[in-house]
């Protein structure tokens, strides 16, 4: 059944710094920070959370319905999504703004610094009308602030279970707003840094949040796997060793594509997360967020 993917569509300019950020940034001088990184390699990729999640979900055999905004330069992206079978009927084409742009620098330790221009994403809330019939599940991934609220409320009112995945937009919301999101969602997915911020802003621990109506909280821990919180109980799901570490860009989104695939099919949260871990380990061996292949990955899932 279809899955509603709400989030950003963006073009990623990805560069590689062969050194370590830690060797270039002096902690005692961050108040007057003025650094420059020589990046010998550069490439442009299709990205954005909604596009990345939908790509992986479609590779697995899912049916993503993308609800997001493109800009005046988004024609190639729209054609690409249609070519690999995504439903783009809810994609808005802005007539004035450019598609969102992310400029990413990755160092040799796979740390990343990202500059993000939202562009058309800031008008994603203008996508209006009823949600399509037959949606089984959804995700509210990083998007325009107003759009994230609107999608969460829409899905909750329609009775569609969804994952709240605030990502890099989490700092844009205060404690009361985050508590509202959690109250509307069925699952929450964050990384370990975001988990700490979520707890600080809501004034609740992960254990406390998980003892509510939530079906589970997923905290991703990179190569160490994931931490799950269900009804106050913590479970560790081990990571999967990657055959090669090439590019971490989009690994979290690939994980979420696997997570959604399992949840939509009624798998347990632990089994769905285990698939997500496998998908993330495969993606990190490919450059860019939408170039990996998942042939045969479901055979042992």
What is the helical fraction, as a range of percent? 25-40%
CATH fold naming: UDP-N-acetylmuramoyl-L-alanine:D-glutamate ligase
Which stretches are low in confidence, meaning pLDDT under 50 for 5 or more residues running?
A: none
Q: Please give the count of helices.
A: 9
Q: Main beta sheet, described?
A: 8 strands, mixed
CATH superfamily: Ribokinase
Strand order of the largest sheet: 4-1-9-10-11-12-13-14
Q: What is the CATH class name? A: Alpha Beta
In percent, how much strand structure appears in the residues?
Answer: 15-25%
SSE map:
Elements: E1 2-6, E2 10-16, H1 21-24, E3 41-47, H2 49-59, E4 63-67, E5 69-70, H3 75-83, E6 92-93, E7 100-106, E8 112-117, E9 137-140, H4 145-158, E10 162-164, H5 175-184, E11 187-191, H6 192-202, H7 206-210, E12 216-220, E13 226-230, E14 233-237, H8 251-264, H9 269-283
Parallel strand pairs: 1-4, 1-9, 2-7, 5-6, 9-10, 10-11, 11-12
Antiparallel strand pairs: 2-3, 7-8, 12-13, 13-14
